[in-house]
What does this fold into?
Amino acid sequence: MTTLSLAAHPTRPRLRAPLLVCVLDGVGLGPGDDHDAVARADMPNLRRLMAAPGRFVRLKAHGTAVGLPSDDDMGNSEVGHNALGSGRIVQQGAALVDAALKDGSIFARDGWQKIQARLDAGGTLHLIGLLSDGGVHSRLDQIIGIVDGAVARGCRKIRLHVLLDGRDVPDGSADVYLAAVDDKAKALASQGVDLRVASGGGRMFVTMDRYESDWSIVERGWKAHVLGDAPKFPSAMAAIGAARARPGGCSDQHLPPFVVVDDAGAPVGTIEDGDAVVFANFRGDRALQISRAFEEADFKPFDRRRRPDVVYAGLMEYDGDLHVPKVYLVAPPTIDCTSGEYLAAMGLRTFACSETQKYGHVTYFWNGNRSGRFDDVRETYLEVPSNPPPFEKAPAMKAHEIAAAAAEALRSGRYDIVRVNLANGDMVGHTGDLQATIASCTAADAALGTMLQAVEDVGGAFIVTADHGNADDMAQRDKKGQPLRDKSGAVLPRTSHTLAPVPFCIGGPALSATTTLRGDLPTPGLANVAATVMELLGFTPPSAYEPSLLDR
It folds into this structure.
């Protein structure tokens, strides 16, 4: 058990009733127009909280406020929950990879040396990853940086296994990224380097499952990338064109698996003994399962048919406790002394709950990329199984079940903190379906109301916030902010996160009338939340934490 400790706060007494911390995932504060699902949804509970004098502020949830390289970078659930739980701004995956590529250290570390040994022996370098510049899971410029570094070190055969996006970037943009790869391949051909796309598919249908929601997604990727077992096409663009030509079309993120073949009909890049494989995403949640498929000797989720003898490396270590993968190119941020660890050390009892799609965020990411509990007695984690996608078909998701479990925990008297995540605004927002996203936000607010009533009944307190924007803007826009339209005049849907601020609200009968939020912080962000939680619970936050949002 940790030896961390917190001093009692000099002016705020220990809270004698439970504190609810609710994260409305993907609920940002957007433009407020017809394409803002948050503004259009029936959300009386959130609007009432935001109207309370002195008890609502906007928090920055993207860019440098959550450890990303620039304020052009959208926030995401992983970095958002890292900041919410750790109370600090920690340099995150993309920034760490940028630095390692810039100074060349990525190629000097032990992980790359294992890759290099296979390349020196004549093996092919395979890069599997999300092909876009969305900056949430991966970036194309980093993939190109790895290609350039490999070529500079003698590699002459590279195969890309591309996962198309249309989620963190506009749908239909896959052509742009594939064209950039084609340009790169042509440039390298003059140097005697054979770079080709070998296989691929849409990120929500091929390879990038998370939280073991649907192993068939990973199996499709394994068959395409490793075995060359998928519908065959002369090029990636031909595969995409065929999928889009189907009745009803096909979005980038749901593209079926494909394999690129040569003139003789043979796959151009199956993964074979002696090769090296890099999974080129820096974000971990959708990289863990494919990593397990490559690494585990006794693997049971699906029949791999064969497991090639390769060096497999992640761009980063995706799970620091389970050490998955065993080989990685850039070390993830070390986030110790998180709020959960401090509060467990102080004897507080925590209940954390979400559905499968966000369960890891309210536990693993909140705890600083740490699996498991800090205290098996004082902490209870509950995962509510998610429905299978598509999420727009049931936009309420599991909000009501989560709210019921949280309300029961609040009323039980067994917990000091009840921490929940409602996934609706993010997961349904990613589909681009405006009406479904409006319905999802309405359902999340109703669930919030259930939990707020429980707080009222037990005389407790609450914090309501979000981790990033998404549902607040469902339209692609031009530089003037006007919605973009297709040839028929229909608004082009936005499926990605936004740069919007998020709400932060406090309240509940346990708070005195004088408990308000400060207005003197120039750019309050998600990292300020952990210290606020500690102060509401009656503790003095660690000096290393970003300051509390509570007014002095």
In short: The mean pLDDT is 96.
